[in-house]
TrEMBL record:
Annotated signal sequence range: none
InterPro entries the UniProt entry points to: 5peptide_repeat, DinB/YfiT-like
Name of the protein described by the UniProt record: Pentapeptide repeat-containing protein
Lineage of the species this protein comes from: Bacteria, Bacillati, Actinomycetota, Actinomycetes, Micrococcales
Annotated Low complexity bias: 178-195
Region (Disordered): 152-216
Organism annotation: Terrabacter aeriphilus
Pfam families xrefs: Pentapeptide (PF00805)
Family matches, as SUPFAM superfamilies: DinB/YfiT-like putative metalloenzymes, Pentapeptide repeat-like
Length: 216
């Protein structure tokens, strides 16, 4: 366990770090931003995770639908998610050429983010729900913590084949192969054990990265 005492970490950035069970005692934390998979966060003796989750649900009601076991709720969640991304993609298309490839504050560009959604769909739905062990979609983009990108079928240099490309269209093509997150129960595939290999390569364990979309 690393120990920091009387250190000035003003302006420090921790990216893709595991800070589980970390303790900050007598710390000065002003204008601090935390973004990631956060649970059991206690601030000055108050567990605040519930407050944060409730506020996120208020701001983004689709989160509640996603957690539902009701098929109607899941269909509505899918409709809202695809609709929201369609609006985002249309907005990006209206911006000046090249904007979709620009990064801001070290975060992924719009195109990189959309490519990551393709990877997440392959990882969580095709692999863990459908049990598919085929290589991932080449244009999918995984975070650096996922090992052996090429072995998984990913091509970092790949990209949308057309400026009209949409991640929603790519996902629809993929899910039309087998099953759908909005299928009728009678036509839905049964439960699958999440494969430990894809394309003949061992996959990282679930939760291998710190973001809420892990493994990514």
């Amino acid at each position: 366990m690393r120990h920091f005492e009387d250190e000035d970490l003003t302006g420090a950035q921790f990216r893709e770090c595991d800070l589980s069970r970390a303790r900050f005692v007598g710390a000065v934390m002003q204008d601090v931003e935390i973004d990631g998979l956060v649970t059991g966060l206690t601030v000055n003796g108050v567990e605040v995770t519930g407050y944060v989750e409730a506020e996120l649900d208020r701001r983004h009601p689709v989160r509640v639908l996603i957690r539902s076991d009701d098929l109607g709720d899941l269909r509505e969640a899918w409709r809202r998610l695809t609709g929201g991304w369609a609006v985002t993609v249309d907005r990006v298309r209206s911006m000046r050429a090249g904007s979709e490839h620009q990064r801001v504050d070290g975060e992924w560009s719009t195109v990189e983010t959309l490519r990551h959604l393709v990877f997440v769909h392959d990882s969580w739905f095709r692999r863990c729900v459908l049990g598919v062990t085929e290589p991932f979609t080449a244009m999918g983009l995984a975070s650096p913590v996922v090992p052996d990108h090429e072995g998984l079928g990913l091509d970092p240099s790949a990209g949308p084949g057309s400026p009209r490309w949409s991640p929603c269209a790519s996902v629809r093509r993929r899910r039309s192969q087998r099953g759908s997150p909005t299928s009728h129960p009678s036509s839905s595939p049964g439960p699958h054990r999440c494969p430990t290999t894809t394309g003949g390569r061992r996959m990282p364990r679930a939760g291998a990265c710190s973001s809420a979309s892990s493994p990514c």
